[in-house]
């Protein structure tokens, strides 16, 4: 089952976020890195790639199931520490 993608806010309730410059720089850098990783996954998947406007996807471009994120986190040292 694929989860439904739901906007986090309506167009009426959108407001600018106030964050320190360093936070924005780190965020922008992380998103550029994610885009590069996703571009490589797209090349590797070839015709199996499913186009979406999502930042985080499976290796084939599909939405990530929440339970899979939970399982992956629990395999990390931080997740195992409780």
Summarize the structure in short.
The protein is an all-alpha fold and 82 residues long. It is built from 3 helices and no strands.
Layout of helices and strands:
Blueprint: H1 21-45, H2 66-74, H3 77-80
Task: Please name the defining characteristics of this protein.
82 residues, mainly alpha, extended
Number of helices: 3
Give the overall shape, derived from the CA principal axes.
extended
Q: Say how many strands there are.
A: 0
Rg result: 16 Å
Overall structural domain count: 1
The percentage of residues in β strands lies in under 5%
Run of helices and strands: HHH
Give the biggest beta sheet: none
State the oligomer: single chain
Helix content: 40-55%
What is the average of the pLDDT values? 83
The low-confidence parts are none
Beginning-to-end CA distance, first to last residue:
28 Å
Structural class: mainly alpha
How would you explain this protein's 3D organization?
This protein is mainly α and 82 residues long. The protein has one domain (21-80). The protein has helices at 21-45, 66-74, 77-80. The longest helix is centred in the middle third of the chain and has 25 residues, at 21-45. The radius of gyration is 16 Å and the shape is extended. It starts with 20 loop residues before the first helix and ends with a helix. The model has no long low-confidence stretch (mean pLDDT 83).
């Amino acid at each position: 089952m694929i989860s439904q993608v739901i906007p986090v806010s309506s167009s009426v309730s959108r407001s600018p976020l106030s964050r320190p410059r360093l936070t924005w720089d780190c965020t922008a850098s992380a998103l550029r890195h994610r885009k590069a990783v996703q571009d490589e996954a797209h090349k590797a998947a070839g015709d199996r790639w499913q186009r979406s406007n999502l930042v985080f996807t499976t290796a084939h471009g599909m939405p990530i199931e929440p339970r899979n994120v939970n399982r992956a986190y629990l395999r990390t040292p931080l997740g195992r520490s409780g």
